[in-house]
Amino acid sequence: MSEAKQEFLERSKEFWNPDKTQFWQDVGVDLVIDRREEYFLYDLDGRRLIDMHLNGGTYNLGHRNAELIEVLNAGAKHFDMGNHHFPALARTALAEALAACTPPNLKYTMYGAGGAEAIDIALKSARNATGKRKIVSIIKAYHGHTGLAVKTGDERFSARFLSEDTIGEFIQVPHNDLEQMEDALRERDVAAVIMETIPATYGFPMPREGYLPAVKALCEKYGALYIADEVQTGLMRTGTMWAITRYGVEPDMIVTGKGITGGLYPISCCVASEEAGQWLKQDGFAHISTAGGAELGCVVAMKVLEILQRPTILSTVNYIADYLRAGLNEIQALYPDFFIGIRQNGLVMGLEFNDPEGAKPVMRQLYEHGVWAIFSTLDPRVLQFKPGVLASQALCEELLGYVEVAIGLAQAEVFGARQRRAG
Amino acid sequence: MELDFQKVIDISDTPVARRAQVDAVLERARWASQAFQRYDRDMTLAIAEAVADTAYEKAAEYGEWAVRETGFGVAEHKTIKNQLTSRTLFEHYRDHDFVNPRIDRARKLVEIPRPAGVIFALAPSTNPIATVNFKVLAALLTRNAIVLSPHPAARECCTDAAHTLARAAEAAGAPSGAIQVVTDPSIPLIEAFMRSEKTNVILATGGNAMVRAAYSSSNPAIGVGPGNAPAFVDATADLRSAARHLIESKSFDNSVLCTNESMVITLAQVDADLRKALQQAGAHLCSEEETAALRGYLFHSRGFNVEAIGRDARWIAEQAGFRIKPKASVLVTPVTKIGVAEPLSKEKLCPVMGYYVARSVTQAITQARALLRMSGAGHTAVIHSRDAATAMDYAAAVESCRVVVNAPASQGASGFATHLPPTFTVGTGFFGRSAIGDNIGPKHLIQWTRLAYNKDEAEEMGDYSALGPRFSGPIPPAPADGVPGSAAAPNVTRLPRAATPVTAEERAMREDIRRIIVEELRAVLRK
After folding, report:
1. Which of A52, A221, A272, B16 has CB atoms 3.0–4.6 Å from A276's, for a disulfide?
2. Dihedral, CA atoms, A59, A65, A67, A73, nearest 10 degrees?
3. What was the ipTM of the complex prediction?
């Protein structure tokens, strides 16, 4: 590590986040991201990394996508954030564009600045629309860190701040368990079920066939709304604009964030049905967000949607998904005892390893070989493996080469350690 | 209001947006080409055949459409060209192997075919569909992906044809995106495609400026320039046959093919008989006044009058101010000079053919060289003669990569009435500032990796007879966990043929079928 980087890390610990800064040094990832372009990150010391983390899909279209920069610059000659009280050109234009590319029942767009804020808006809207308070989510769910969103998730993120639910308004049920889902809804006192279509932070456990439509049916049966958190699964990452439609569900609300503005000017959106968004007719001033739907962000988001709807995209996404899967299958055949599972829907992939913390040594070995992919915080057996929708053939081929080597070394590390313990 | 908003953020006409558009298309093509390289020869042929069949079925429809859209040429003739560039072309190449390695035991070499990858192909307005068919089949036979860029004047028919062929290819199992088309071609966009490092080779057919731009792109390019074919009819020629070939070729598709004869050069001793034979074959021999009128109409200070391209003889005569008999299909304009002083010695993409009488064979050859110096170097020359020595002198002297003998040039140079490889892209070689002087075909879209053994006799060559690349076929679709019906088998309507060796009988039968088809088409051409 260079002296400059060392010094920087000290400052980071002093002024930014001592624990998090130290954590990465402890797990052997001494990354300080400097320059970035396409699907590459460059460390402060100059090393190039293929970004397979993409900040949960934020960089779905690559880092500093040239078209997005161009449109942001063009937009900045005319717009700023805008005034949240007034009808606004860019906000309305994006809302129209979203209405056109979401299921036909969805109509209004409500804006936030980040994903969690849009989740809070969705939960508040559901409470308003149903007149009920309870919210059902999945055990180990993750929907962000704001007031309501954090209560839907694992206590790992709420208890420290004394912000966990204490009055039984937030119920969590196991993923893929319809019985418990029905038990939670049976009393007809639930405003909404909120689910990531494929729970990312939990390592992308895949919904069983028929599970999501059945949850939606239960919602209808018991008068709850269905909120699809598509922050990580939307935006063509599964080969459709929104993963939820691929599972045959028309949700009452879709929440999108991260990738919707390509990491250049953050906004988030909750697209709601007439029913779910009814407060917008009752009292439009009831929820306010100054940075929510900042117009420059809207300008970028419209370009993101346009790029994602080009005729070449679907074919390319399929190629990336199929090619990587074929390559991963071959790698799995080499290390079947360690690399035990591949979870996949399109470019949403989780690689499962035969050790409670198995994804961590793989992450570290990948990092050594020039690939940045992160373990799943709430299930560290699983490595999140997330290529962008514009990944090139050459990049994917290069990537598989590193993955094969890294998994081999990680297996040796893990199994070697076990042998030593046994010895 | 909405319009204003869209305008503020419209970046579609920026280099950045063009680059992104180009990258998206070429990267998809790259994926397709890499997937294609997993295909074996049987699957490759099945795809090429399905596409050839579709192009053949659509030959008349697209022939008419091309004439309607561009105003150039004759629908029935375009139909024939579209047929020649579909099934005939496929039949010609059916037995060529561009997929498997070839072993040369004597020289201890093994050669493995390696496709170019992504081909960027321009299609001209004069031969739009034939060029599309030809380039697509050449690409498919060699397992390349192709991106077609039609001339804006033929954009609609080319785009539709490309989509039709792409659908046929994918239905037969081709990788998605193996055939793509630029639906909104513009000069900056085409230049961006040509300059992109994602393009492996450019197949440029079209105007000189575009061909030069292809060569200047920094990418490998196979460019072919204009023609301006001299047709020497010497004293030994069968004049009736020569006249028939000249008129048939010059009138074909109203002479939009760059292989058409531009100038007849003959000798004084057969001048009178040749004129008579030409008239009998359907020529209108222009008077001095008519020739002057045509010269004025066809050439102005800016060059050739594009209005006349691909128009019929009667229409052109009327524009020039005179009338001809209805059955005359070519206007023959006698000239006394060849060179810059005579505009009629330039390329004329319409049924107007110059006519020059030389005093000797030597002078005729000198004048033929002069004609190709005007334009069309490297492209095509013709001779009608029964004297091999004259043909040799002529061919060794003219700066042309091919000299068609006793055949119509338009079908002869392109290999449909000669044994040259069939093509719609005629290499003009070094004479024409091009990389390749052959008739362009599939073989130019692959290169070979060569395993070369030590010459030393002590070093024995391994046995490669059962070896080759692993042809694993299409990439299987990845499962989408939990999605109903995900990862179904790929939708291939035509199963790959079994890889059984072709028997001698089958080979003979195929040979017969091919011969019959070619004969039939040639008969049609001669009408």
Report:
1. A272
2. 100
3. 0.93
